[in-house]
Amino acid sequence: MPDDFIQTATRRLKGLLLRSWRRDLTIVPVVRLSGAIGMNSPLRQSLTLAATARTLERAFAVKRAPAVALVINSPGGSPVQSHLIFKRIRALAEEKNKHVFAFVEDVAASGGYMLACAADEIYADPSSIVGSIGVVSAGFGFPDLLSRIGVERRVHTAGTRKAMLDPFQPERAEDVERLLAIQKEVHGTFADLVRGRRGATLTAPEDELFTGEFWVGPQALSLGLIDGIGDLRGTLRARYGEGVLTPLISPPGNWFTRRTGGVESALGGLGRDGLGAQFGAGIAQGLSDVAEERTLWARYGL
Questions:
Q1: How far, in Å, are 230, 245, 253, 293 from residue 279 at the CA level?
Q2: Is 17 exposed, middle or buried (0-12, 13-18, 19+ CB in 10 A)?
Q3: In this predicted model, what pLDDT tens digit does every residue of 152-197 receive, in sequence order?
Q4: For strand 129-131 and strand 121-124, is the pairing parallel, antiparallel, or unpaired?
Q5: Does the annotation count 110 as an active-site position?
Q6: Is 3-132+213-298 a CATH 3.90.226.10 domain?
Q7: Taking CA 45 as the corner, what is the angle to CA 191 and CA 111, rounded to the nearest 5 degrees?
Q8: What is the end-to-end Cα distance of the chain in Å, rounded?
Q9: Which helix (H) or strand (E) holds 281?
Q10: According to DSSP H, which parts of 97-209 are helical?
């Protein structure tokens, strides 16, 4: 059989194969980490370790992949869930010996920036919001409202601080002092994490970096908070070639569960008598969580 015929047939067969099967192309799995962190409700699922763990494990399990890319768009949220996701990413990266890229979309702030710090390289758009390395606690006080509308509030505790910072009681200096001490500890953990992951690249003094301030992409680059201005497609093509494959790793589960954010499991097992009450409570909680998440995004003008 002539050599030119064999070569032609080989080229045609290779063209018919799915690109993902080709051994000469680099694969970099992509995981999207989008939304507020740790604000789950029966009708809404946010970023938590439980919600992201299997997706991360699937991405890092791709043997041929030299790296995993994280696409981050988060205004922050729970410091605990942020830290748990961060630690899981670092553990998988070390276990599977893979490089990690982070690409910031609109915002990687507070806990969102903590997630970005799990990457070995961080890239952002020129208009991305980056930073907010701080801790915040916000609420409202209504100490005189109940008396004005003729309602008596009754609070009984075992423990002198159990009703600390009750919004319907006057704020006490010792309670605020206690809250600030807790925030200082959490802030210190956050700052240590940033130092550990970005210490070699940080160029600004800590009294500027760790104030809770946030910056746009070029400013964050000059401060050493990110490694470059760029997007996923352009950066990975420059690193691995024009044919690099970037498959999006979707969360496991069926379509209905993903679209409803867990409502299927939230309703499962409820009897007929409890369904209406539980569902109504879930809607109320969901609306409250949506409002709280909306406030987080609004802080960054989004």
A1: 44, 42, 22, 21
A2: exposed
A3: 677 777 776 666 666 767 777 776 777 777 877 888 898 999 999 9
A4: unpaired
A5: yes
A6: yes
A7: 10
A8: 65
A9: helix 272-298
A10: 111-116, 145-148, 173-198, 206-209
Q: Which of 20, 127, 147, 162 is catalytic?
A: 162
Q: What is the pTM of this model?
A: 0.74
Sign of CA dihedral 266, 272, 277, 280: positive
Verify whether residue 162 is a known catalytic residue: yes
* CA dihedral for 171, 175, 180, 185, sign (positive or negative): negative
Q: Which of 128, 46, 100, 32 is nearest to 236 (CA)?
A: 100
- Which one is catalytic: 41, 78, 82, 110? 110
Tell me where in the chain the CATH 3.90.226.10 domain(s) lie.
3-132+213-298
In the block, tokens 């680099």 appear at: 26
Q: Give the tens place of pLDDT for each residue, 245-286.
A: 999 998 876 444 444 444 433 334 444 455 454 445 454 455
